[in-house]
Amino acid sequence: MSLLANRWTLTEDAAESTLLDLAARRFIELRQPGNDPMQTTLHLPAAPPDATGLRPYERRVLDRVRGLAVNGVVPLTALTFRDESSAKSWNKRLHAEVVADARTAGLSRPRFGSTVRSVLGGAAVLAAIAVGLAAFHYGVWSDNEDNPGVAAGIVTFFVLGGVVAVTRGERDTPLGRQVAGRWLGVRDWLRGHEEFAELPPASVTVWDRYLGYGAATGTTHLASAILDLGMGDRKLVWSSFGGTWHRVRVRYPRFWPRYGRTAPQLVRRALFAVAAGVLLLRFTVDALDLVAVTGDPVTDVAYPVAVVLLGYGLYALARSLIDLATVRTITGEVLWQQVWQSTARTEDSPSRPWLHHLAVDDGTDDRTTAWALPSEWAGNCQDGDTVTIRVRPWSRRVVQLTVVGHGRTRALTEPVTTQDTAEPSAAPVGPGPNDVFTVDEIGQALGFAVLAGPPVPAIGPVGTAQYVSADRGKAVLMVQTAGGAPGRWAWRANSRGQALPGVGEGAYAAGDRAALRLGETTVVVTLLGDGRGRHAYLPWLLNQAAARATTRHAPG
Hints:
Elements: H1 2-5, H2 13-24, E1 29-31, E2 41-43, H3 56-68, E3 73-75, H4 84-104, E4 108-110, H5 114-141, H6 149-166, E5 170-172, H7 174-191, H8 204-207, H9 209-217, H10 221-226, E6 236-239, E7 246-251, H11 263-284, H12 297-325, E8 328-342, E9 353-361, E10 367-369, E11 371-374, E12 386-392, E13 397-405, H13 409-412, H14 439-446, E14 450-452, E15 456-459, E16 462-469, E17 475-483, H15 484-494, E18 498-499, E19 507-510, E20 513-518, E21 521-527, H16 538-553
Parallel strand pairs: 7-10
Antiparallel strand pairs: 1-2, 2-3, 4-5, 6-7, 8-9, 8-12, 9-11, 12-13, 14-16, 15-16, 16-17, 17-21, 18-19, 19-20, 20-21
Helix pairs in contact: 2-3, 2-9, 3-4, 5-6, 11-12
């Protein structure tokens, strides 16, 4: 869909829209626990649908979520990559799979067919011959013994032939134009609802596949801004060390003269500073009484410089010796590694890295400073691996690295709640999420005592309430309400499964989810945690809400 709706050009939203579509189809769940959409987390359901029918690019996105999940949970913003080459490779393969699927369905074809490529190749040959003859003619009349004609022709052919070979892209087909026209109509319809652009990713629970459609067509601004399967932020990195997800701020020193240096280098530098300070003092201090010569501007400046050099040299020498004696051992998760220092490039040898930044989370703080890793060890570990490193604290140089556990990313390596911005007509109408059921009714339906959970901020025009188990305090049931146009969309997305005649103005139950229509309001009930599988009394629960709504609006 992203390919067709964007003039046969894949955008960066292709992966994000696929992720939202997988959430709408219940392969994953998106939950926003707080006021900020950036806090959204992905959860793997206990009984997901059968994934055998997924397309290759859908499987790729789902595999990344499953591969990164810890105890079935992964923060939404932790899906980003930490290695640029891995990010490019993953997205390149995903795009190739999308294009292959579109071609198989007859919706797309290569921009240049075999006939056009043959014509362009022939033109390249003719141009190469023309250039070669011209260069040969010039060589005959010049004094240069080496005639450049043949070489110029060969170079011209390979340059033009290379342009033909690498010119990629897709173009439409008759069937593709028809399908694209329908999706462009969906895009225009979604753009006609201003509140749709401000929906966060977690609203896919109510809006179902429409949110994925909006991401593919560029109409879900907020959700698209939050979702990202590209390169991550190396200064704010997710870590799962210790069994729970948390963010770690990483600082990367660049200007410390001691950072990453070996002990001999530090000692030599310190001794050089001491020697320079002593020599400078020798010429600026009277040899007899050790009193600085005054009256000479040069000696007035040289004396404090000599003192600074001598003091720095002695300090650096002492710290270098202490650094040698205080080697520490740290175990933690690799957050990020990246080339920092490389050798100078010359005509005889290319530039080669000799020092890497290595950020490790040892679980003691939410802030850390990257270590300096010799580049010959950089290939021994990957992001997410658990490593034990021996380090020198002052120079922050790694002197030994041992991988003690492989991270989840190895298997994946390739060979805000927003404020309600809706129009008044889109605001929830009728009962709010906290007024649909009573605590006793929910407890009776689930078979155990429950309590009202903490307040949940509204997600756009959708109101949400949660109920938790009385003994463990874990969420067991979620109620969401929406009115107006959002309510109609929610009803359209959730009116499936077993129809429940006689309940409200319409009701459906499908596994751990049920939907109820009350006037202009749609109520969606979802079982969570320990409440999963206890859906036998969901019809009774909806009937209680419908009866209460009828009593509330009866003439009195």
